[in-house]
From TrEMBL:
SUPFAM superfamilies: ClpP/crotonase. Belongs to the enoyl-CoA hydratase/isomerase family. It comes from Piloderma croceum (strain F 1598). GO terms for biological process: fatty acid beta-oxidation. It comes from the Eukaryota. CDD domains: crotonase-like. This is Enoyl-CoA hydratase. Pathway: Lipid metabolism; fatty acid beta-oxidation. One of its GO terms (molecular function) is delta(3,5)-delta(2,4)-dienoyl-CoA isomerase activity. GO terms for cellular component: mitochondrion. The keyword Transmembrane helix does not apply. The lineage of its organism: Eukaryota, Fungi, Dikarya, Basidiomycota, Agaricomycotina.
Length: 285
């Protein structure tokens, strides 16, 4: 879809309400500043345009690799921040915050974003998928939290997310401290991915799109609310989340989707209810 696609990110409508977003910077999907700025802007544009998107799958257009991570030539920009230490540090912080904001754009979407990983996902690749709701990997996928090999701590999201989204803190720390490459099976053991699909790109993208299509049949209000409450729970205590949920659902319980879903359940209809878009689409409700 040319309306949303950019120079390095290809967007297509895989099926009604489901978009496929593909990383597409040759040769290895290495991220320059222009690439990560575009990535964040495209997600925000899809979100704000509200073309009744109900799920997105992120993958790579390159059949051999998800991403090689950072294009280190882009670090030359940091050299232009000046020589005065305090100002240099201030501008570096702004740069990192903008980078984080772009890569975390999927979290701002009210619909689920599913990562379909094949081949190597190096460094920033782990940041990217950590910001997604669901992560699938092909059996040929490999991962590495590579930053310590370059004298840095991972700073775009991996270290913030891993303790929250994985179930093996010891393994997460081991992999972050050593920069060792780990397999799709080890990613599943870590809890980073929820499904490993035999084969390569074609199989994992198909599996992720099947999941996206299933999610797209559900009430957009219910899915957006579920994502909002899960994200809040990740970042807050149980008691705080329960209080927040009472306020959120106190408003959302008045949705017309509830009646439609109840009727479909009661009549055991084989067809999914037809739900209204979450927001206006092309000026219409």
């Amino acid at each position: 879809m040319s309306e949303f696609s950019g120079k390095f990110v290809k967007v297509s409508e895989a099926s009604p309400h489901v978009f496929l977003v593909e990383l597409n910077r040759k040769p290895l999907n290495a991220f320059s500043k222009e690439f990560w700025v575009e990535y964040g802007e495209i997600f925000d544009k899809i979100n704000l345009k509200s073309h009744d998107v109900r799920a997105i799958v992120i993958s790579s257009a390159n059949p051999k690799i998800f991403t090689a991570g950072i294009d280190f030539q882009s670090f030359a920009e940091i050299e232009n921040f000046g020589s005065e230490q305090a100002r240099r540090a201030y501008h570096s912080r702004e740069y990192i915050l903008a980078f984080q904001n772009a890569i975390n754009a999927p979290g701002r979407c009210p619909f689920p974003v599913i990562a379909a990983v094949h081949g190597p996902a190096i460094g920033l690749g782990v940041d990217i998928i950590s910001a997604c709701d669901v992560r699938y990997a092909s059996s040929d996928a490999t991962f590495s939290i590579k930053e310590v090999n370059f004298g840095l701590a991972a700073d775009i999201g991996t270290l913030a997310y891993l303790p929250k989204i994985t179930s093996n803190d010891s393994l997460a720390r081991e992999l972050a401290y050593t920069a060792q490459t780990f397999s799709a099976a080890e990613a599943a053991k870590l809890g980073l991915v929820s499904k490993v699909v035999d084969g390569g790109r074609e199989g994992v993208v198909k599996s992720a799109l099947d999941l996206a299509r299933l999610i797209a049949t559900k009430s957009p209000i219910a899915i957006a609310s579920t994502k909002q409450l899960l994200n809040h729970s990740r970042d807050h205590s149980v008691s705080a989340n329960l209080e927040y949920t009472s306020i959120w659902n106190g408003a959302m319980i008045h949705t017309a989707d509830l009646k439609q879903a109840a009727i479909a359940q009661a009549t055991k209809s084989k067809e999914s209810p037809s739900f209204q878009p979450l927001r206006k689409v092309q000026g219409k409700l």
